[in-house]
Amino acid sequence: MSNRCVVILAAGDGKRMKSNKPKVLCEVLFRPMLGWVLDACQKADAGDICIIKGKGSELLDTYLDGKYETVMQNERLGTGHALMQAASFLEAHRGGDLLVLCGDAPFIDAETIRKAYELHVSGGYSATVITADLDSPYGYGRMLRSDDRIIGIVEEKDATDDQRKIREVNSGAYWFNVNDLLTVAPGLSNDNRQQEYYLTQFIPLLLAAGKTVGGYRAETADAVLGANDRAGLLKLNQIAAERVIRRHLENGVEFVSTDGVLIMPEVEIGQDTVILPGTVLKGNTKIGNGCQIGPNSLVENSVVGDESVFNASQCYESIIHDHVKIGPFCHIRPNSEIMDNVKIGDFVEVKNSTIGEYTAVSHLTYVGDSDVGRNVNFGCGVVTVNYDGVHKHRCVIEDNAFIGCNTNLVAPVHIGNGAYTGAGSTITKDVPEDALGIARARQSNIEGFAAKKLEGRKRKV
After folding, report:
1. 29, 80, 209, 222: which has the fewest C-beta neighbours closer than 10 Å?
2. pLDDT averaged over the chain?
């Protein structure tokens, strides 16, 4: 039980995808297909993982970041050949069981892996094929059974008319007894039209050696689905998106329309929240109860509290508390925290800042690297000037302050409790509590200047 291991086949290039990256790095709901497979393995506690990679695997190495053992398949001579590139990994796991998965089949899930393993162990099988029933099995290898055992796999081109009626197909995922696999491995042959070595060859080799093979039917046909081109990848994205939306519907989330709605599987959404068209929710995002998100909004790796409205805006790696109204056309950048009952209006950007309760930042304002208190009012066009070209500096704006329109707060500057800044001011010094800070030149009018400057531009009506 403790000596389980996994080999994931991921050596395919991206030629048919018309991509410069390995096929397994093409994304389904913003996550590489390989990431889906790895996540399923980890949730199933499937054991040590080895990944078979191909030429030009620098991008794959970057993605894996040294977290998993990898083995190079220098020549692509079939799936059986790919597996045997991990011979030393398999030798280190003698006495255990091996799970073989395809890195471009993202819908294999932890429950399927666990239940297939339970059947593998309870049946004492040398191999257990994970299968699925398809309404249209054309093109797939058909499973041949005798009672509960697999007695063969026949490919479409080799099947009889009766065999083609079989709906149970090979998913390409297997559990193997490592010792039995290594015993028959020398019998692998490339005596076929393609001159390649296939994983399916292990099944007749094991049967010929007097071993038994089981088959676990996955509860969903999606387990067999992969993608060989962009059209196939689009289909996987559509299936994944529909599955996630269906789960949220069952949990009490409302969708007026699902047009353009994309939600990653790990996102959490509270009941009575409404998700409007064009909404994209990514990463470890949590949305509270009774919110309205969208239309045309993106929230990534962020928390949105209860009863908040997030309209036509974007938010990254930040926390939005309860009863907050944001948008339209706002940008909440990383490390920001928006407290309860805040209103952030159109064309506002907040970065690395805290905005206190009941504060209003209504429009056309930039708040960066700032600590803003409660019940502060920002007029139109306020800018916190936080960067001097070398270093970032913070502004502190205490409770109840009133920041007049077109005020520039040149950080570091401190605005006291209840202080006021005059419209059009460039504030470079602290403003004390309850004081008025005003910094603008006295107006002068020069008679006749405009007539000379704009001569020739006036149109005669």
Report:
1. 209
2. 94
